[in-house]
Specification:
- By secondary structure, this protein is mostly beta strands.
- The N and C termini lie far apart (42 Å).
Amino acid sequence: MRSIFYVLSILATASAVAAAPQALNAAKKKGAAPKAIYFMTNDAAENSIVALKVGKDGTLSDGSRTMTGGKGASGIDGNSSMPAGPDALFSQSALKVEGNWMVAVNPGSNTMTLMSIDTKDPTKLTMVGQPVDTMGEFPVTAAISRKNKIACVGNTGARAGIACFTIHFRKGLIPLAQSQIVFPINQTTPPVGPPNTVSHVFFNQDESMLLTTVKGDPMKNNTGFLSMLPIQKGSIGTQDTRSSPSGTAVLFGTAPIPGSKDIFATDASFGAATISTEGTPAVIHNVKIEGQKATCWAAISAMTKTAFVTDTAQDNLVEVDPRSGEILQNTQLMRGNPGYVDLVVGGKFVYALSPGSKDGTRKAYVAVADVSSRPAKPVQNFQPEGPGRSSMGMTAWM
């Protein structure tokens, strides 16, 4: 009799384990919040990662602050010739999470850091190996391919371009010398921007391609471009292809569109665009956002299948259908926030970083919005302890 119960218990356990992924996926589809979100302080003295706890209702609370072993830095605002901020790095994804790995750039040290995330407490981060040289100057954007076990970085200083690294569970990031691609954008260190700088490095849906957006400068008749670097069987290509989709000028933040080879990209000169990457990249839908000032960051919700974009100079969250180009809503989030930089979507919630004001009188906040219905519902405007206008990046652990 005991053996029968034993067998039944084993079968029940196996069934529960088998059902776990489906249960997790179902929870995500229903809008379950992430377990933690992260951004970096980008402080010139010592860069650090701010990890915030996320409750089941999507609200934030203090978590931890972990040093990256490198220094932050700010680019130079081309209008004022002063240190830039908000949008100190002119980029999206200054740090990125995939699985239980995180990478973060250290622009003041020309390095990138690999962290492991504790699955029991995702606000607990541990550096793996040591920060590595990014094979360029002023790194501003990072990406991870879990499939290929590599991490890549975009540099936008005097030595601009991209470089990639193998991820080793103990040694950390190991440089792949053949992966280094140079972008001749004639910049300085620190760079003068936002125009004419590297914006965003990211992998496509099946992780067979590394894509990078580089901003042009319409005032100088300098055209930006989209770089595409192939990856075959985990091996990085040695030559990228570059194109400038007609109608774009200042390509910035991007998000791959699930179930397709298209991407959704912001362009600060007019709003955003859906771009096909098959063959020669071309604009499918041009999304003009009326009244926009600097629409630069983008994220796509797996739940709503729509894109959300933010503007560094406006307290608005804009939702777009990337398959049609239709603007679904343009909602003010939190009165008092001057604007937003990077953002991330987790379940039914959007988390957007507002680094504060140019004069430094207002510190960083993270706005939380429920986007399961329209208009988006403001949930919280959380102020972490300390970070200010140089803060950048936003990513999540689900």
